[in-house]
Amino acid sequence: MNKKIVILLSVLALLMAGLYSCKTDTALSTIEYISRIDVIATDQTNLTADTFAYINFREAEGGPATLIDTIRLHTGRTYAIQLRILDEASNPILDLTDSIRHMGDTHLVVYTIDPVSGLIKSSIQDKDSHGLPLGLQSTWQTGDSATGYLRLILYHQPMGKNGTPTPGNVDFEADYPVVVQ
């Protein structure tokens, strides 16, 4: 009898150890990896929309982008801009845009345009719950024919978002060539 109890307890202990080792860590399983940012530009003159992609599966390692579309816009126009932020490393692909919107109090998208004047004038249209800019939606006004660059940076600011890029870390950075003609 004693031997049967020891065997039963041993089997039960092995079963419990096996179940415990298969338990998933929810903190690890919710890691999101930004691999793509789409700039969706809707021309307010004729309501046509174009999507410009920036794809980098090696962003976290500092690797080069695998695809960078040139943003091509018309002179003297106003564009409604929407960002779509994706994790294409997941299966199925995850659209992280709504998650970032819901966590807007800790995120900020900053647009830096070079040259500063004459190419695009950008104005953020969406705000977080404290009235600070978020940047997933913006309005762009184009100037005369010119070329330049747009640097788009998504900041994660869990400690002290104040509407500036100073606090926090960079979640993703994309440099797009821009042609206005």
**What number of domains?**
1
Shape field: globular
Helix content percent band = 10-25%
Strand residue content: 35-45%
Q: How many H/I helices?
A: 3
How many strand elements? 11
Mean pLDDT: 85
**What is the helix/strand order?**
HHEEEEEEHEEEEE
CATH class: Mainly Beta
- Compute the CA-based radius of gyration: 23 Å
Cα end-to-end separation: 89 Å
**CATH architectural type:** Sandwich
Largest sheet: 7 strands, antiparallel
Secondary structure category: alpha+beta
Low-confidence stretches: 8-30
CATH topology call: Immunoglobulin-like
Topology of helices and strands:
Elements lengths: L1 H20 L4 H4 L6 E8 L5 E7 L11 E2 L2 E3 L4 E10 L6 E2 L1 H6 L4 E8 L5 E5 L12 E6 L3 E11 L12 E12 L1
Parallel strand pairs: 4-11
Antiparallel strand pairs: 1-2, 1-5, 2-3, 5-6, 5-9, 7-10, 8-9, 10-11
Your description of this structure?
The protein is an alpha+beta fold. The protein has one domain (32-180): Sandwich (Immunoglobulin-like), CATH 2.60.40. It is built from 3 helices and 11 strands. Strands 1, 2, 3, 5, 6, 8 and 9 form a 7-stranded antiparallel beta sheet that branches. The N and C termini lie far apart (89 Å).
Task: Give a nutshell description of this structure.
The protein is an alpha+beta fold and 181 residues long.
